[in-house]
Amino acid sequence: MLIETKRCGQHVVLTMNRPDKLNALSYELIDELMDRLDALEGDDSVRCLVLTGQGDKAFSAGADIVGFATDIAASPEAACRNFVMRGQAMTRRIENYPKPVIAAVNGIAFGGGCETMEACSIAIAAQHATFAKPEIRLGFPPPFGGTQRLPRHIGRKRANEMILTGDAISAEEALLTGLINHVVPSPELLTSCLQMADRIARNSAVAVTASLRAVTRGMNVSIDEGLAIEAAQFMIAAASQDAREGTAAFVEKRQPVFKHR
Ligand code: COA
To answer: Where do the domains of the chain lie, and which CATH numbers do they carry?
Structure first.
């Protein structure tokens, strides 16, 4: 299996499983991850996904260069269809996923591995994790959304430096630039991600999904369009039993009991 699935309480840990190739994203691995995301989307008992890489060396060293080299050699059209579109669809799927996807960055997050992490809702990294956009050294720009998401996350000039040099940055630098949320000692990585998932899961699933949608959909539109998206997502959440329960619980000075509907 290229994607290992492990249930942890209310959450599921998905592990990219090609450690001998630093969890490089082969077409098969991407397709399997997409299948797994499809299968888990409608399972209401699953609150958050944690995405990580097998071993302690790499989250993922990016798209599988050996795999896509054949398509690049064939034609730009073949490379775009099989490689770029596949990778972009995966990062967009993660970014738009209705449940939080937390990246547990357990080592190298290069190229498509970095782009996959960027698409996640939240990212926590081990102290030894490193981040890079080495695609320029292969002769092309980042193709799984990296030229679009990275500048939105860390600003145009910092993004240009990473994209144009291909140089790696440390977990501490990634934290300072806003690329990731937290840095923790390696042995605590998975626990930290699952604790974050538990903190999210205390809240209404309806409100969590509405919040994710408002943030993701609003990121790339004007403020007025974004506010309309926010209002529409608020309406969805406000119509839930949970919104009535949450506000009633505050007024009655008790803890809310959310039913996630
Ligand atoms: N695609 C395919 N195979 C990859 C890979 C990738 N992106 N990244 C690493 N591997 C493979 C290596 O070929 C090697 O396989 P082998 O043992 O059969 O020779 C194995 O994973 C271990 O990698 P190795 O290069 O020996 O590890 P390292 O610690 O010396 O270097 C990196 C680590 C990340 C610096 C180096 O592997 C690298 O530069 N990888 C490519 C990163 C990249 O350009 N990603 C963007 C792709 S678009």
So the answer is: 3-201 (3.90.226.10), 205-251 (1.10.12)
pLDDT of residue 168: 98
Distance 133 CA to ligand 1 centre (A): 13
At position 11, the amino acid (one-letter code) is: H
State the pLDDT confidence band at 1, using cuts at 50, 70 and 90.
very high
* Pairing, β 58-60 against β 122-126: unpaired
What count of other Cβ atoms lies within 10 Å of the Cβ of residue 219?
A: 12
Angle at 159 between CA 157 and CA 164, to 5 degrees: 95
State pTM to two decimals: 0.97
Distances, alpha carbon 250 to alpha carbons 155, 242, 247, 256, in Å: 39, 12, 5, 8
Take atom 46 of ligand 1 and give the residue whose Cα is closest: 111
